[in-house]
Each structure stands twice: as C-alpha cells, then as structure tokens.
Design brief:
alpha+beta; Jelly Rolls; globular; binds 2-oxoglutaric acid
Length: 268
C-alpha cells in the first residue's frame, strides 16, 4: 500500500454509489487500510483510555455511544482522510455539477459495554432514528461515514438500516420519541421497508448512511468498547434553518446563512 493510501480512504465504486442511491446506505469493505484503522484506534485509545471512558463527559448526552470530537478538518493527521471522505461524499451525493461538500463534524464513538458500570452515558442501544432534524439545516443530502476501528460483530452493537427509508421524508427529531423510538410514531416503516441485518465489520470497513435513512444499533454485549470513527459531510449549499442544533454553536449566525467556511470547510 502506498503512503497516500495509508493516510486516507479508498474511492467508492459505481456499484456502491448505486446501492447508496437505492437503499440510503452502503457498506464499504476495506474503506481504510488496516494500518490507518489501527492508527486511528491507537489515537482513540490515547484520548479515551482502553475502556473508552477516559475523556470528559460530552455535554451532548445520549445513550448511543461515548463521543470524543476529533476536529479532523484542522488536524494534519486526519485532514487527508477527511478530504478522502469529502471526495467520496461528492460522488455519493449526486448533486449538481460543481457543487462541493462541506465538513460537518467527526468523532470517535465508543459504545460502552451494556453489562458493566460506566461513568459515561453511551452504554445503551442506538434506538432507531434519522439524523436530519438534529442538524438544523434547510436541506438534506448530508451523510455519515461510520468506520469500524476494530473487528466488530453484531454483539458489539453494529449498525442496521431501514432500506429505502431515505425516501419517506422527515420522520421527527430523535429526542421526541420518549422511552421508545421512531417505530412508535412511524410503524409503517416495518411494512414499507426491509431492515438490514446488523453489520459485521473488519477493522477499516465502513458504512455510509444518508441523514434521512432510519438507522440504529443494538447494545454492546461484549466486554470491551465498540470503537468507531464517525465523519459527517453535507452539501456545500446547506444553510442553517434557525433551529438550535446540538451539533454546532449558532452565536452570530443569521437565519438561512450558508455554513461558514472556517468551521465547515469545503472538503470535496
Ligand atoms: O454508533 C451508533 O451506534 C450510532 C451512530 C449514529 O446514529 C450515526 O452515526 O448517525
């Protein structure tokens, strides 16, 4: 493998682009080489500890995983990967000629073992939801690259997707389902879409899902953290819709402005 490949991801194939368009998600085997996946895992462990709980508790508390923001767009060690992800997002997005892709965020995501006592939130199941409403943007098209940093099996709490659910429109904010999930409000998902099996990933494999695709994952029933790296991309013309997002600070922003280049640089 060349030095360049060791710093970034491979390119998606035409078949993968078609799968994403049809199903709203796609699996990317060998998206990162094993060397890069191992380096990212070492970085995650250095920042979060071997138990995935050594970092500060995130203000954005949710049961899905313990997050550690990585600010990859301004980290020289991560920037080549972020740009590789941007280039792939552009291929998957299939928007108008010349429209770029913006960085939106990236983080390590350690789903903590359900059976052990944890200091952090993040040891629950990821109940089924869409991402779009939480991003406070005026248009969809954005997507999440979810990259396994370790070999992961369904018992680790791996991703599942409702096939084609990206065509069903906006199905509510993930914090509005009380003790339940999206299926309480939208049981028709079960008749209108099939559900993928929980994924198995080798370290470096990824899935990408649209921000309108309903997804979730089970509890981590293993004894160690489930290590993933998540990077999010949006169309370059995305604008703030005026809602208070969890993902970014809106101080100084004006309604319907495009995301700024400083925090959300063009990456593809
Ligand atoms: O890692 C998980 O379990 C959930 C991830 C997720 O919801 C997302 O990447 O949008």
């Amino acid at each position: 493998m060349s030095d360049v490949e060791e710093q970034t991801c491979r390119k998606v194939t035409a078949h993968e682009v078609d799968h994403y368009a049809e199903h709203g998600w796609v699996k990317l085997p060998g998206f990162l080489g094993r060397g890069l996946a191992a380096r990212l895992l070492a970085m995650a462990r250095a920042r979060m500890g071997d138990d995935g709980q050594g970092n500060a508790i995130s203000p954005m508390q949710q049961p899905f995983f313990n997050p550690e923001a990585t600010h990859g767009a301004r980290d020289p060690a991560l920037r080549p990967l972020i740009e590789g992800i941007g280039a792939n997002a552009r291929l998957l997005m299939q928007r108008r000629e010349g429209l770029g892709v913006r960085y939106f965020g990236d983080m390590f995501a350690a789903k903590l073992p359900a059976a052990s006592d944890t200091r952090h939130p993040g040891a629950g199941a990821t109940y089924f939801h869409q991402d779009f409403m939480n991003w406070a943007l005026d248009r969809s098209g954005g997507m999440t690259f979810w990259i396994a940093l370790d070999d992961l099996v369904p018992e680790s709490g791996t991703m599942q997707f409702f096939n084609g659910s990206h065509r069903l429109g906006a199905l509510g904010h993930y914090r509005t389902y009380g003790e339940g999930d999206i299926l309480d409000d939208f049981p028709e998902l079960l008749s209108r879409c099939t559900l993928s099996e929980p994924m198995s990933y080798a370290a470096g494999d990824a899935t990408v899902h649209s921000n309108l695709t309903v997804h979730g994952s089970g509890e981590n029933r293993t004894t160690g953290p489930r290590w993933a790296y998540i990077a999010i991309a949006n169309p370059a013309d995305a604008r703030w819709n005026g809602a208070p997002p969890e993902a970014f600070d809106t101080a100084g922003m004006t309604l319907h402005q495009q995301l700024d280049d400083e925090r959300f640089p063009i990456i593809g």
